[in-house]
Write a structure and sequence with these properties.
The protein has two helices and nine strands; from the N terminus they run E-E-H-E-E-E-E-H-E-E-E. The protein is an alpha+beta fold. This is Glyoxalase-like domain-containing protein.
């Protein structure tokens, strides 16, 4: 299968201290808000967009965009990766690679 993985500019963290985190990134670092919802705020950093989400804390999650998410997921599992979290309504498919990096695989625009 020929599948191209291309990184997006998105990095997401999830935290239970959402108010503290959004204050830190918005006020202390002075990052401008690029998007906002009730549970997610995106900050523009210049090189990447940092999303801070309400919820159980986890480390940073990077994102790769692929032409076919399901095919890429199967290829990654076959290569020793594990699915950490998946929610098609987001869409979200967090994968941990054999070396400890967690990333989301998302649908590349056509």
């Amino acid at each position: 299968m020929a599948s191209t993985f291309e990184s997006s500019r998105d990095v997401i963290i999830r935290t239970e201290d959402w108010a503290g985190a959004t204050t830190f990134y918005g006020s202390v670092l002075g990052l401008p808000v690029a998007s906002r919802s009730d549970a997610l705020i995106g900050f523009e950093t210049g090189a990447f967009r940092l999303y801070v989400e309400k919820g159980k804390a986890h480390g940073p999650v990077f994102e790769y965009l692929v032409p076919d998410v399901q095919a890429a997921k199967q290829r990654l599992i076959a290569a020793g990766c594990i699915v950490v979290e998946e929610d098609a309504s987001m869409p979200r498919c967090y994968i941990r690679d054999p070396y400890g990096i967690v990333f989301n695989i998302g649908q590349a625009p056509e």
